Every structure is written in structure tokens, then in C-alpha cells.
Amino acid sequence: MEEAVRYRRERIDRGIKARSDTIYTLASSRDMLYLLFPRVLPIVALFCLPLLMGGSYWGKVIFYSCIFALLALSWDFMASVGLVSLGQALFFGAGSYVAGGFNHYLKWPMLLTIPAATLGGALICTILLVPVVRLRGVYFSMVTLILPLLFAHLIETLEILGGTHGLLSLTPFPNHWLAVYIAVIAVVIVLFGFRRLINEDFGLVLRGIKDDDRVVMAGGINIYWYKAQAIFISAAVGSFAGALMTHYYQFVGRSAFALDYTILPLAGAVVGGPGSFAGATLGSFILVPLSEALRALGGLRMALYGIILIAALAVLPEGIFHYIERKYHQFERVVKI
Amino acid sequence: MSDEIILKIENLTKRFGGVTAVDQISFDLRQGEFLGLIGPNGSGKTTLINLITGFVKPTAGKITYRDQEITGKAPYTIACLGISRSFQMVRTFHKLPAFKNLIVPLYSPRVKKFGGGKYGERDDIAIDLLDDLGFERDSFVPYKVAGSLPHGYLKRLDLARCIALRPDLLILDELFSGMAMSEVAATLPMIEKFNREGLTIIMAEHRLKELFRVASRVIVLNFGQKIADGPPKEAMGKEEVQKAYLGTEVEG
Ligand SMILES: Nc1ncnc2c1ncn2[C@@H]1O[C@H](COP(=O)(O)OP(=O)(O)O)[C@@H](O)[C@H]1O
Ligand SMILES: [Mg+2]
Fold this sequence. Notes:
Number of strands of chain B: 10
Largest interface: A-B, 22 and 39 residues
Strand content of chain A: under 5%
Distance between the termini of chain A: 18 Å
CATH superfamily of the largest domain in chain B: P-loop containing nucleotide triphosphate hydrolases
Distance between the termini of chain B: 26 Å
CATH topology of the largest domain in chain B: Rossmann fold
Number of domains of chain B: 2
Oligomer: heterodimer
Number of strands of chain A: 2
Largest sheet of chain B: 6 strands, mixed
Largest sheet of chain A: 2 strands, antiparallel
Shape of chain B: globular
Shape of chain A: globular
Radius of gyration of chain A: 22 Å
Bound molecules: adenosine-5'-diphosphate, magnesium ion
């Protein structure tokens, strides 16, 4: 009887020897290119996309994608300390209303409202969340979910900050290009900034808190202080996104606290692959245009959107980015057993 | 050993529901002392360590560290005062390279106070420390992902993590459990050396033979109570201790 020849696929790491994340042994310019390509590609893509789309409807979609990417990045940063947020809308809404409020009541120009909203919004959110930072897992998530809904409700019933009508005719961006490129640059800075920060010693401490907070405490580190710092950084990014959107719309209303600003960034981060920041960005740039493209379908839109989301998670549970990353760093060959 | 009392425990009690895990325990520990903490499984050793290090809040009693009451203080506050502890169950950051596991204590306010260095410098300090504890610098071991290391290395990594905090009081919870004989033999002299250099040590241990080679004093716990306190020979000779260990294996 002839013996059956069996084959097996073997995965091999592409050979750049790395002792740690920071020490590379670069052998050739090919290795350089191998490392540079994945870093340069997203930057080039981000800068070219708005040019290709111009000021059309799809140009606006690029802007929205950036806004949601910022929110997804902000979600991913909190998740990397082990804080699972269901309230990116809180950050977004806080930034939106701080920017809108200063612009509407005090007539501050955009150059002041956006930084004020970034810092002010972050401060407000941090003060609100610090008391519950000791809550574990789902209890913390519940609080983040409820707070934005509470704010929307307060604004409506107390008729503060414009009540149900919102604050109208705020200062617009001089043109679409300025808005979209501020958003693009922000995404690039936050994406690469977070990727770098999380690998520095400060980031190691944050990741340690997620993995095992008892070991971190035994190492003499006040985990609540570091969680508060992570919330502040994360909220600053979310609030900045809110402030941009406020001036882009020239309007801020209760909808700034809407569940959309929680769900879509969360979906983007999860589909793209959490824990890498690149995944959150990629996911947002897939899901936001997709949800716009499905708009034509009317009522079926949400159903189809849901199906696509579930399918994406079923096929690539690790997230799109982690899949691409793995494929890039490994090659497969078929070997005889 | 000096006469200065570094740790004073007074009537310390911890109840979990109906179980009294630590029952009215009192003792003094002097600077530079090497104390063995022994007792059958479930006798309250880990709970006593958790109480001292703030991971568990006492039901009653008082803990004083160098004239400062630390009862009920947060674990990180206590750690920063110089009390460092290991965990009975290995707890390491499995996804990080071994030496990066030491960044957390090196980043603490306590080490920063000593001038703990900047980014990159901390890596060097971590590798130096691991080298001292038998992770040869020139092998790939310190750079390997912690999760891929054998159990014995993880235990020593935990010890390195404790030492990185530059403690004045080191508390080890069954460091030797699961270690091979050769690893125990290699680690014991290191711990002895730390003690000789002035570090006060409390060591909860089941491997009595090894423990008695280094500890000058043992406290024996049984059902949360202190049943003996003194030099190993004397403590083990007590009838109550013999009874507590009856049916369980007594080494040495
Ligand atoms: N978190 C806890 N909740 C309830 N009971 C506990 C807890 N921790 C320890 N115990 C109980 O306290 C007693 C002492 O346990 P422990 O301190 O782990 O003993 P040892 O370390 O000497 O083996 C045991 O009866 C154990 O079941
Ligand atoms: Mg124990």
C-alpha cells in the first residue's frame, strides 16, 4: 500500500531579530523598509484620502471617520488599563458642550474653545469617573454608560445649555479642508503617540494594572492614580473630538451624549482589533464609511450593519489589524510530514 | 541584628465569615531578623502576610512598622514604606519580557526617591538585578517572554520584583514551592546574602529543612493561632507543634 503523503502548513517568522521591542538588529535597507512600510502607509493614506474625496459628501465621511477614530482610540487607551468604558459619549458630549458653551456665551474663538474643551472636558470627565474607579469590571462600565444619558436628560429637563434646542450658530471652520486636516493630524498624533506611550515605562505600568493590579500595588504603585491619569488622557482625546464636531456642525445639542458615540467607536475598536490602537483606527475607517454606504437602504440599514459586524467578529475574532499584522510578520510554506 | 523593632503586630485578627484565619496574633520583629513562618496548610500564613502588606483589612488589631501605624493602609502605601512581598501563586506579567516585569517596582515613588533612573536606564537596572538572581545577562533568558519561562524562573522573577523595590522588610510566601532542589539550593544563598546585608526577612515556607538553615527564629501557626515562637529547634520540640504537624509530613 502506498503511503499517503501528508502536508502541513508551517508558519515562519520573518527574520528581524528583536531582543525586545526597542532593540532591533537591522541588517539591510530591506529590513528598514520592512519596518517603515507599515508606519508610513497609514500616514500617507490618511493624508491622501481627503484630497481624493474633496469637499463631497464622502469628504465629510472622512471627517466623521476621524472623529470616530479618535473616540475609538480613546476607548482603546482606557481598555489598555483594564477600564472597559461604555461611555465614550460622555467624553464626546463634555467636549462638545464646553466648546459650544464658551463659544456661545463668552464668544471665545475656536482657537480657544477647542483647547479649553479638550482640557476642561477631560477634567470634568475625570472628576466624574474618579469616584468609581475602584469599581471592578462591569460596575465601572455601567456608570460610564449611565452618565451621558443622565447629562442628556438633565439638559432637557432643566433647560440649561440651550435645553432641547441646543446651542445654535456657533463659529464654523473657515473651510472643510482645515477641519478635515486638523482631524487627520489629530488621528495620526494620537495613534502614534498612544502606541509609543504604551510601550514606555508609564505604559507598562498601565498594562500591568490591566494584567494583575495586585502585583502593581505590591510594586508600590498607586493604581487609582494611574487609572485617573489614563482616564484624563483618554477623555482629553474624546473631548477634543467633540469640540471639533461642535464647530463642524456649528451646533451642539443633547445628541452629543447619544449612544451612537459610544457604540460605533466600541464596534470600531473591537472589529479592528483592540489593544493596538491601529486596530481601533482601522476599524473606524471601515465601519463609519460602511454605515454611511448602507444609509441608502433605509430601514434595513441597522439590520445589515449588525450582520456585517457579527460576521466580522466571527471570521476574525482577534480583529482585522491583528490578522494583518500576523500575516505581515509571518510567511507560510507547505511542508511534507 | 540590632535591637530596633521594625515590625510590631498586636492582637491581629482576621475573620472570613465563620473562619478565623488569623486569631489574636502578636509578635515583634527586630531589624535584620530572619523569621520563618510555618504551619499546616490553611493555618493562616498567607492571610497574615496579606494583613501586613495591606491586601486584606484586619477585623481587629494593630500593625506598626518603624513607629508608624500601617493598619488598614493601602498595599501601595505600605510597599512604598519598604515592605515588599512575593505571592504564593506566581503572578507575573506573562506577555512581557522577563526583565520588563521589574519596570513596575522600578517606576514606583519609592525607587524614584532613590534616584531610580529614566526610560532605558530602568531596563539596565532590571537586567543587572536579574543577572544577580541567576538569569544570565548574556543568555536570552532575561529577554524571553515571562510566560514562556519555567516555573522556577517565574518564582525567582517574583523575588527579583520584590528586591527591585529596595525593601527594608522582605516577606516571601512559599517561594520554594514548586522549585526544583537545585533551584532551591541556588536561591537560598542569595536570600541569605540579602539578610546578611541587613534586610529583614519573613519567610513562610513548607520546606522546613531549607528554612531552618537560614531562619534564626520561627513562628508556628495553627488554625490562625500562634502556637510557638522561638529558635527552630525549640519551637519544633513543643508538644503542640508536634500535634499540629501530626499526620502531615515534617521535613528536617
Ligand atoms: N479571601 C478569603 N475568603 C475566605 N476565606 C479565606 C480567604 N483567604 C483565606 N481564607 C481562609 O483562611 C484560612 C487560612 O488560609 P491561608 O492564610 O491561605 O493559610 P495558609 O497560607 O497558611 O495555607 C483558610 O481556612 C482559608 O480557607
Ligand atoms: Mg498560603
